[in-house]
């Protein structure tokens, strides 16, 4: 079982926190900090396993991590998982991110944390590995994004307006305003 | 119609439409936080206030946006549980986009204790059975995170239905989710099991993998209920090509074989085939692990048993030699499992493990260290320790060095010094360890010195003289004593020199060096030992001087003179002891002047032999008839008095002597045994006759023992060292070289090295001798060699070429009690330590009460029926 998946950057800022067992927020943050302490002092070219010890779960648990550029990807797993298997899984996760975001970087994770979660939901469920095939994960994720776009197309001024504002699409903005303007005019 | 709208409504409606534009999206929030690095908390609190406003609106997309932002803030450590109801609103949206946002937020912040969960049952049921498979999947992902006992009970059947979906995408999620249902509602397992079993043979490999995953999780905790599935798993193992599935199955077999040895025998062949054929390191590694588990469970009766172990060890060697640190680490980990049952096979790779000690990766070094303790034998102990000592010199970081130090002591002292053939060497190692800069293990070293000196009689002369050297150089321990506990060794040194002072070569000199030390600078417990042992040495000196009154007088007068400054000690007990010692000496002086002094009166103070006491001796003392331990001897005192009584009774508690350092050794396994030294010494009080007899018998046994280092040789040896040490002592006491750095690092290394070389030569000689004996046939008194004429047998029995040193093992127990009794082993750290390698055993207990029956097949009708009864189920983790 996977007990937790953490992603944080080189200065301990969390970029993804997924616990498959409930911990209060302050404990979650503490776990992130302690894990960072453990992981960040390790040099490159040392092994990717750490005995978790007191952080989560106790003796049966260990931390398996990979360090990519500015980000640490950490999986906390118990002894029913294969260490090398989980290392591969982290690789799959990162490659999927790379495909879905097209050359993923830390900023993608920062601004699209929801998407990262949705990708992760294709990879594991309730702490158990669900899918390890990169193409399958990516195509399922894409299909769901398409679904979202369709919904946005059908009705969705609000969402459209949101994106519109971001892109400073003024005509769109005015279109939305007209309706309410009309109402106001009627009143007075 | 429009006319009737009130002002408020209009404003609200306007807000609904405008609002969206002025609200922050998640993107804006993240950017805002990044732009307010200085007052992030303030910015976020404002954002939360805005979110609260947004959540009050009717607009669902606005709510979804707000919830999405909350999910982000939750990651930053903000508690968002107050928004639980709004999250449910968003979850219940008809739009996939919003539903997904809602379920994500729920999965991050809901837990089994969230009370609004009871409102969600029907909504989740609807989502699970949605015609859109992605909606259903989103619901399942969310549910897996926040499912509780009620949801598990109410939705079990809906999830069961999903297991028969035509879409593998749904089926595999339903199978995995079922495990969470079982955890939260154990009653669901029995009716669901047949269908779960079917899924092991699902046409879709993903669903199959999910089913294997779930059953492996279940079986890991309660393996015996799943033995019946072994044939199916066996078939899967030989047919599946999915490495994930194979790894899970192989791990499962590792858990099943201890219960069914026949299964193990069947497994060896396919597993070895996999080991030979697979190119996936992860699979190879798991195969090795399971083969090891199998071989442990069927220790006998397998013909190719040795070949399999050899194969595993060889493959592991390849892993350890790999440049990939991960493989190296795992290789060492698996080696330690083999070591427990087949130490010989691992010992052959001694060189490799030694190399790992030089690895730059600390986790690998620590793993290698772990292995070492299991690998030592009489033959290689000295080599291994020597390497560790060299290693300690080179290594950086006091944590790792301390780890090395305690490891050295652990491997030397394990099973009552079983592997030590040369105690002179060990004592000199211990003395060298005291030179480790800034060590926290002063206590550990001190206890070892005491333990060895007490248990190994033949070492006392050597130990005494080494300790005398330590005492003569006590001043080096005064410096920097705050950061290190190494001064503790003086406690041992003073006691050994006092107790066994008859072995001191120059007792008077030792006495003088003790008296010239600034004892009052040491911690109280060390001072106390010093004062007590000053008296012991004086007694011995007077006793051995043949009643030379002038000498006695001179000695006592000198000591009185020097001791008076010790009366100013800051420690109450030390001061008291100094004072008592001083007064005894004054009385003695008076008596000598009156010529009424009888040395036997003085020596009576220190009569008796100190024997090690078994760890459980105190507990095993039989309560005499008629003694009621619970009855008050005197009437119960008032509260305050009670307290003082308990402090007094701490006398035999080592914590009293060692004060705050106590925690340092509570972690090591022999603290139990050694604490006995603190017990009152009047425990055994033999008469002088008995003492004499014991001494006689000891001498006899020494004479009988061919390996006992005879006097002539011994003096030569120690004298040689002493000169070299004295020489360096001269350097040390020179005022120009003060401070820690002044301790010559090589002061004693030469001693242990000399002893090391000496014993290597001795060993070689003995080996040659033995060989020539066996070559010469059985004509002489070679009893052993006559039996084993072939060389292989000799090699195997190399142990007899090592000297056997008499070690008092275990300890004294009350009469009529044997050590075997394990009636209360709550503090039996050793046995617990061994168990920790098998996590399944520990987990099994929790699950025993679970009504799991693998072979049970319920009537099909039961599958459809939701169990309505309210069962309180303990959460299982």
UniProtKB/TrEMBL annotation, chain A:
It comes from Adineta steineri. It is a peripheral membrane protein. One of its GO terms (cellular component) is Golgi apparatus. Signal peptide: none annotated. Pfam families: Clat_adaptor_s (PF01217). Residues 1-146 form the AP complex mu/sigma subunit domain. GO terms for biological process: Golgi to vacuole transport; intracellular protein transport. Keywords: Cytoplasmic vesicle, Golgi apparatus, Membrane, Protein transport, Transport. Part of the AP-3 complex, an adaptor-related complex which is not clathrin-associated. The complex is associated with the Golgi region as well as more peripheral structures. It facilitates the budding of vesicles from the Golgi membrane and may be directly involved in trafficking to lysosomes. In concert with the BLOC-1 complex, AP-3 is required to target cargos into vesicles assembled at cell bodies for delivery into neurites and nerve terminals. The keyword Transport applies. Belongs to the adaptor complexes small subunit family. PROSITE patterns: CLAT_ADAPTOR_S. This is AP complex subunit sigma. It is found in: Cytoplasmic vesicle membrane; Golgi apparatus.
TrEMBL record, chain B:
Keywords: Membrane, Protein transport, Repeat, Transport. SMART domains: BLVR. It is found in: Endomembrane system. GO terms for cellular component: AP-3 adaptor complex; axon cytoplasm; endosome membrane; presynaptic endosome; terminal bouton. Residues 726-736 have a biased composition (Polar residues). The keyword tRNA processing does not apply. Belongs to the adaptor complexes large subunit family. The lineage of its organism: Eukaryota, Metazoa, Spiralia, Gnathifera, Rotifera. Residues 665-677 have a biased composition (Low complexity). This is AP-3 complex subunit delta. Residues 648-664, 690-701, 710-725, 836-849 have a biased composition (Basic and acidic residues). GO terms for biological process: anterograde synaptic vesicle transport; Golgi to vacuole transport; neurotransmitter receptor transport, postsynaptic endosome to lysosome; protein targeting to vacuole; synaptic vesicle budding from endosome; synaptic vesicle membrane organization. SUPFAM superfamilies: ARM repeat (SSF48371). Transmembrane segments: none annotated. Residues 631-744, 760-877 are annotated as: Disordered. PANTHER family: AP-3 COMPLEX SUBUNIT DELTA-1, DELTA ADAPTIN-RELATED. Residues 686-848 form the AP-3 complex subunit delta domain. It comes from Adineta steineri.
């Amino acid at each position: 079982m996977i007990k937790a998946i953490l992603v944080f950057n080189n200065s301990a800022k969390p970029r993804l926190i997924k616990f498959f067992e409930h911990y209060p927020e302050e404990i979650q943050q503490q776990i992130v900090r302690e894990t960072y302490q453990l992981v960040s002092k390790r040099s490159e070219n040392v092994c990717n396993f750490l005995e978790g010890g007191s952080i989560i779960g106790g003796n049966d648990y260990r931390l398996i991590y990979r360090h990519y550029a500015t980000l640490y990807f950490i999986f906390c797993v118990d002894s029913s998982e294969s260490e090398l298997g989980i290392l591969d899984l982290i690789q799959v996760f990162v490659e999927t991110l790379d495909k879905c975001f097209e050359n993923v970087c830390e900023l993608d994770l920062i601004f699209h944390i929801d998407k990262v979660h949705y990708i992760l939901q294709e990879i594991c469920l309730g702490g158990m590995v669900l899918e390890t095939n990169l193409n399958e994960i990516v195509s399922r994720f894409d299909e769901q994004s398409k679904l979202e776009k369709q919904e946005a197309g059908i009705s969705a001024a609000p969402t459209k307006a949101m994106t519109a504002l971001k892109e400073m699409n003024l005509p769109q903005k005015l279109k939305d305003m007209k309706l309410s303007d009309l109402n106001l005019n009627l009143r007075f | 119609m429009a006319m009737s709208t009130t002002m408020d409504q209009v404003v609200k409606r306007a807000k609904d439409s405008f609002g969206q534009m002025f609200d922050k999206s998640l993107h804006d929030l993240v950017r805002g936080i990044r732009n307010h690095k200085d007052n992030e908390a303030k910015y976020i609190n404002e954002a939360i206030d805005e979110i609260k406003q947004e959540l009050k609106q009717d607009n669902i997309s606005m709510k979804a946006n707000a919830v999405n932002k909350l999910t982000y803030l939750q990651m930053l450590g903000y508690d968002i549980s107050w928004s639980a109801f709004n999250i449910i609103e968003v979850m219940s949206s008809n739009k996939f986009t919003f539903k997904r946002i809602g379920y994500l937020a729920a999965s991050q912040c809901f837990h089994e204790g969230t009370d609004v969960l009871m409102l969600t049952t029907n909504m989740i049921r609807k989502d699970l059975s949605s015609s859109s498979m992605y909606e259903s999947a989103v619901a399942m992902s969310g549910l897996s995170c926040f499912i509780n006992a009620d949801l598990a009970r109410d939705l079990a059947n809906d999830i069961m239905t999903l297991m028969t979906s035509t879409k593998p995408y749904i089926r595999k999620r339903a199978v995995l989710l079922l495990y969470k249902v079982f955890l939260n509602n154990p009653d669901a397992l029995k009716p669901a099991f047949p269908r779960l079993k079917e899924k092991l043979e699902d046409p879709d490999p993903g669903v199959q993998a999910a089913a294997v995953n779930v059953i492996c999780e279940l079986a890991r905790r309660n393996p015996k209920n799943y033995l019946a599935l072994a044939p199916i798993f066996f078939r899967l193992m030989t047919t599946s090509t999915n490495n994930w599935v194979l790894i899970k199955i192989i791990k499962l077999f590792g858990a099943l074989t201890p219960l069914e040895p026949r299964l193990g025998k069947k497994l060896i062949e396919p597993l070895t085939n996999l080991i030979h054929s697979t190119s996936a390191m992860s699979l190879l590694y798991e195969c090795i692990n399971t083969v090891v588990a199998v071989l442990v469970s069927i220790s006998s009766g397998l013909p190719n048993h040795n070949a399999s172990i050899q194969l595993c060890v060889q493959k592991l060697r390849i892993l350890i030699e790999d440049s990939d640190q991960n493989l190296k680490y795992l290789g060492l980990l698996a080696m330690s499992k083999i070591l427990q049952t087949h130490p010989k096979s691992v010992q052959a790779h001694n060189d490799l493990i030694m190399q790992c000690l030089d690895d730059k990766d600390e986790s690998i070094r620590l793993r290698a260290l772990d292995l070492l303790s299991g690998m030592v034998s009489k033959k290689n102990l000295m080599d291994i320790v020597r390497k560790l000592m060299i290693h300690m010199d080179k290594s950086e970081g006091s944590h790792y060095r301390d780890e090395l130090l305690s490891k050295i002591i652990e491997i030397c002292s394990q099973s009552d010094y079983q592997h030590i053939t040369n105690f002179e060497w060990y004592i000199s190692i211990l003395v060298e360890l005291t030179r480790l800069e800034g060590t926290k293990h002063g206590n550990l070293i001190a206890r070892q010195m005491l333990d060895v000196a007490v248990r190994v009689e033949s070492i006392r002369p050597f130990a005494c003289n080494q300790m005398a050297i330590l005492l003569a150089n006590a001043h080096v321990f005064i410096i920097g004593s705050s950061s290190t506990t190494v001064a503790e060794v003086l406690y041992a040194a003073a006691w050994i020199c006092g107790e066994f002072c008859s072995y001191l070569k120059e007792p008077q000199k030792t006495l003088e060096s003790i008296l010239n030390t600034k004892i009052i600078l040491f911690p109280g417990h060390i001072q106390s030992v010093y004062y007590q042992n000053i008296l012991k040495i004086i007694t011995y000196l007077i006793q051995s001087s043949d009643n030379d009154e002038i000498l006695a007088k001179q000695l006592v007068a000198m000591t009185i003179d020097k001791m008076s400054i010790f009366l100013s000690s800051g420690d109450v007990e030390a001061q008291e002891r100094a004072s008592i010692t001083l007064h005894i000496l004054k009385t003695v002086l008076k008596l000598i002047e009156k010529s009424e002094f009888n040395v036997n009166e003085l020596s009576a103070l220190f009569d008796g032999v100190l024997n090690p006491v078994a760890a459980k001796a105190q507990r095993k003392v039989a309560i005499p008839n008629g003694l009621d331990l619970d009855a008050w001897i005197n009437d119960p005192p008032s509260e305050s008095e009670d307290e003082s009584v308990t402090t007094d009774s701490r006398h035999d508690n080592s914590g009293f002597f060692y004060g705050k350092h106590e925690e340092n050794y509570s972690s090591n396994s022999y603290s139990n045994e050694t604490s006995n030294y603190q017990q009152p010494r009047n425990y055994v009080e033999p008469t002088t006759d008995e003492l004499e007899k014991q001494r006689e018998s000891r001498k006899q046994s020494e004479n009988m023992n061919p390996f006992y280092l005879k006097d002539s040789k011994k003096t030569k040896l120690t004298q040689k060292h002493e000169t070299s040490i004295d020489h360096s002592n001269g350097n040390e006491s020179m005022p120009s070289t003060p401070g820690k750095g002044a301790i010559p690092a090589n002061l004693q290394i030469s001693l242990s090295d000399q002893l090391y070389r000496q014993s290597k030569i001795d060993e070689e000689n003995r080996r040659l001798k033995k060989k020539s004996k066996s070559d010469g046939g059985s004509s002489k008194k070679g009893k052993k060699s006559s039996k084993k004429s072939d060389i292989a047998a000799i090699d195997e029995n190399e142990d007899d070429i090592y000297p056997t040193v008499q070690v008092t093992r275990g300890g004294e127990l009350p009469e009529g009690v044997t050590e075997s009794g394990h009636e209360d082993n709550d503090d039996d750290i050793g046995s617990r330590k061994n168990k920790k390698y098998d996590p399944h055993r520990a987990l099994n207990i929790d699950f025993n009460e679970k009504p799991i029956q693998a072979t049970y097949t319920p009537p099909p009708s039961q599958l459809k029926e939701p169990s309505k009864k309210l069962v309180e189920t303990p959460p299982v983790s």
